[in-house]
């Protein structure tokens, strides 16, 4: 069978780590398994530190063969600054590189575009349509609305400009896939009569069989991911009074890393950042996994729900939104009312080993696979893709 060519434009791709990079790589891997020859266009890796990875510094372009096809890495001025203007310049730098790519490189007629960042998505959609390509828009969060809810943006000229760019991206797409039902509902309100598809961010890996819990009264809670302002781990670590038999273990890096490391508490253990496969093995040591967000962001469903459930860990969900119903409906763990620190304190004070043992790690794994299977999702998505 002759491979079908497809282009994927994304702001995040391995060797970068994180939900966005993992999600796009899983999609690319599924495309390759289903006889697509994939061309990936992305910036040189720089997330989350805002500096180019070793081996990529001083370059403006790189083309590399991969098992699934080809990777084109383009120049970017990297930054993880909290300054909105500087971050904007960084996004525009990759957008400029994208313009040159579309002008001077041959690319497939079908293109999957990761949205957001908004400027990157807009640039990719504009040039794809100008060159007569079929656009599939992969919407993982609702910028600029998410930025407004997080307090990063304010209503005004810049916000209105981003909203118009967002609407353009939706309007010029032939298929929109979203990581949450709220995202699809948001797009439906635009009344654009464009096909929509729910594509949960379920990870593509085979977990190890869960280990049996040792007989102990100690309860180990784990958080693995970005130590960012949006997650609010420093506030949780410092405000919660930890019972003698409970500890919180942290994996990852981010803006709050140093502040967390400075906390003096035997109940808070920072393990640093480790490679994803090794992390999956490490996580089996723990009793339940914390998923926090400072603010409930419409449209966003933390991808940690799916990855941690695939591993089999019961969840302590403290993030609100659509994720609450997923945890509740599929019996994946406990919900604590979003932003209610007192309720979180009560849960941590009262939780007992017997309650945790009621959750079978094997059953959680099976539930996650049954309800969010990546293979099942992709089979349906691929049918939509073939129709374009």
Report on this model:
With 388 residues, the chain is α/β, with parallel strands linked by helices. Helix 2 runs parallel beside helix 3 (118-130). The strands form two sheets. An eight-stranded mixed sheet has the order 3-4-2-1-5-6-7-8, sandwiched between helices. A six-stranded parallel sheet has the order 11-10-9-12-13-14, with helices on one face. The chain has helices at 19-33, 84-104, 118-130, 145-149, 157-171, 181-188, 233-239, 257-261, 276-283, 304-311, 322-329, 341-350, 353-357, 361-372, 374-387, and strands at residues 4-9, 36-43, 61-66, 69-74, 110-115, 134-139, 175-178, 196-198, 219-224, 246-251, 268-270, 288-292, 315-318, 333-335. The protein folds into two domains: 4-202 and 373-387, Glycogen Phosphorylase B (Rossmann fold, 3-Layer(aba) Sandwich); 219-370, 3-Layer(aba) Sandwich (Rossmann fold). Helix content is 40%, strand content 19%. The model has no long low-confidence stretch (mean pLDDT 91). The protein starts with a strand and ends with a helix.
